Amino acid sequence: MPLRPLVLLTTLLHAYIGLRLLPALAGLPLAWPLLGLALLVSAVTMPLPFVGMRSRRRQFADVWKWIGLISMGWFSSLLVLTVVRDAGLLLGWLGASVSGVTLDGARWQLWSAAAVPLMASATSLVGLLNARRTAGVVRIDVPIRDLPSALSGFTIAQLSDIHVGPTIKRGYIQRIVNAVNGLGADMIAITGDLVDGTVAELRDHIAPLQQLKARHGTFVVTGNHEYYAGAHAWIDELRRLGLRVLLNEHVVLQTRNVKGAQTDEEVLESALLVAGVTDYTAGHFDAAHASDPHGALADAPPLVHTRVLLAHQPRSAPEAAEAGYHLQLSGHTHGGQFFPWNLFVPLQQPFTAGLHKLHEMWVYTSRGTGYWGPPKRFGAPSEITLLRLLRA
User: 364 forms bridges with which residues in the sheet?
Assistant: First the structure.
């Protein structure tokens, strides 16, 4: 959105909040000027991330992005709670009118108006702490029918939606890399939205990913944000770091020792096919990158029965299930990141977070390892996922 309409919209919304809360706080002499000042600061600083993007001074830009994004997270909760308060007051008035009960309207107005900024501030502070901590490890067992014994116990460490950019830098990435390396996973999957910026801006911050260690390596698929930031340059950079980027293609991971009396058929039957598709919307940016779960299986050895797909968006799942995959790993949703956005995710995606089954295929949707926009997570903690394949 262009800057001027955005500023106008946020100004009007701040005015709405002020008109709904400030008069009700007149009975608290200190509260209304504090909230008025906070609303003014929020209205002025929210556009700063966009102003910072245009600044040639990187340190200047980063400071303003931090301030603006924190304001954005606080304002988001404040707006939602103000709307909820208004709805509650309306329902209370209607209920009192119908029942004939007399309510102390001024008292409810006062204390509900005081509760809104307190709750918005508390959730924003907790959300900031949740967002900035190193993601915790979530362990998931995935039962797969007729899984070869050689693959039972195979582990995949999944990272998703880190969004290296305005507030997520090298130190944040280094902590994630250290945590993943401590898991000793058989392979690592990064399911898109790794960056929010160009290679020139973020090359140094993304560099710790080359330290990721797993027996079979690290595999990456593109998310929609890679296409916003210049996907082709990022694909080249990630490959330079030693990561395997899968663009509607697959690899076969040999999980058994080929020495001895094992036949080629036995080796293939115990192998794992790992496919990766471009983002669901990639075709809008580059027709050659149109997402294709079926095409990712081209020339796949028929004896490799177990198939895992890396796909950034959960809505790739219907086509993936049709193509015969056993497990799809996705992200994109952030689990909603913070209320009320989790309520809107199901309008676009079939799954918000966690392990679900679609026909004969499992779908795991990560809540994400970083965050996007405001440094805030509330009710949807970030995660490093360790998935273990087991025989059903």
Answer: 329, 355
Whether the CA torsion 73, 313, 199, 208 is positive or negative: it is positive
Round to whole Å and give the CA distance between 272 and 252: 6
* Burial label, 113 (beta-carbon count in 10 A; 0-12, 13-18, 19+): buried
- Would you mind telling me the total number of residues written for the chain in this entry? 392
Q: CA–CA separation, 383 vs 355, rounded Å?
A: 14
Condensed to tens digits (0 to 9), the pLDDT of residues 37-70 reads 999 999 998 887 766 554 455 555 678 889 999 9
Rounded CA gap, 370 and 381, in Å? 9
Helices 199-206 and 170-181, packing angle to 10 deg: 40
* For helices 58-99 and 105-132, angle between their N-to-C axes, nearest 10 degrees: 150
The total of other beta-carbon atoms located within 10 Å of residue 177's CB is 18
Amino acid letter, 296: A
How many whole angstroms separate alpha carbon 27 and alpha carbon 24? 7
Q: How far is CA 369 from CA 172, 292, 343, in A?
A: 10, 25, 20
Query: What is the dihedral sign for C-alpha 168, 237, 386, 185?
Result: negative
| Rounded Cα–Cα distance for residues 128 and 125 (Å) | 5
- Cβ count near 216 (within 10 Å): 18
Query: What is the helix (H) or strand (E) element at residue 155, kind and residue range?
Result: strand 155-159
Q: Tell me the per-residue pLDDT of 274-288, one tens digit each, with 9 for 90 and over.
A: 999 999 999 999 999
